[in-house]
Write a structure and sequence with these properties.
- It is a single chain.
- By secondary structure, this protein is mainly β.
- The model has no long low-confidence stretch (mean pLDDT 95).
- Strand 14, helix 1 and strand 15 form a beta-alpha-beta unit.
Length: 211
């Protein structure tokens, strides 16, 4: 009901027959593991009052097909959408997010598009690992570090557009089983080709691009 102002950690953990839920306006946080492995959950209405989505909040919600993350959200915890294998089409991350944590979207194998906001500085370990339907992604110039296996197993990722003129630090391996061509600013091509971690792709996968 609308009178609820707080939902505790693991509140609906393993409610395997729960199909939909509307969270009332006034809730500010979806806490850790709130909907952990709610395997039948297909839809959820998150109010604009929510500013934080906790660790493993929707972990393993394999029937969840879409979700609107409110623009006021400034923090998404590790593993938050890990294993949401039906999460499809596209997903927009709010502008206030500065870090995409470890395993946040790991295993979102139906996700075809995701928009990373310009304020993100870090893409964590295995953040997009196993996003096997992701075909293209743009990395904003704010990103300074890309974690180990961040795009592991993204077998359909053909194009990655990197806006930074200074190559982000790679905690290798990052792109295992990922065939992407890296499109970088024209003036930064040599910087990428000579940078640690990037140099292995210098011969045919780093290409200049006019943004």
């Amino acid at each position: 009901p609308s009178s609820v102002t707080e939902i505790g950690e693991q509140a609906f953990n393993l409610c395997m027959d729960l199909r939909s839920i509307k969270i009332p306006q006034g809730i500010t946080e979806i806490r850790s593991a709130t909907f952990y492995k709610c395997l039948s959950l297909t839809s959820i209405d998150i109010p604009s009052s929510v500013t934080k989505i906790g660790r493993s909040a929707f972990y393993g919600c394999s029937s969840l097909t879409s979700i609107d993350i409110p623009s006021g959200v400034t923090e998404i915890g590790e593993d938050a959408f890990c294993g949401c294998s039906s999460l499809a089409i596209s997903l927009e991350i709010p502008q206030g997010i500065t870090e995409i944590g470890e395993y946040t979207f790991n295993g979102c194998s139906s996700l075809t598009s995701i928009e990373i906001p310009s304020g993100v500085k870090t893409i964590g370990k295995s953040a997009f690992g196993g996003c096997s339907s992701l075909a293209s992604i743009e990395i904003p110039s704010s990103v300074k570090t890309i974690g180990e296996d961040a795009f592991y197993g993204c077998g359909n990722l053909k194009s990655m557009y990197l806006r930074a003129t200074t190559p982000p630090t790679l905690n290798s391996p990052v792109f295992s089983s990922c065939p992407a061509v890296f499109y970088v600013p024209m003036e930064a091509v040599e910087a990428y080709k000579n940078a640690e971690g990037w140099s292995k792709y210098a011969s045919d996968r780093i290409v200049g691009y006019n943004f």
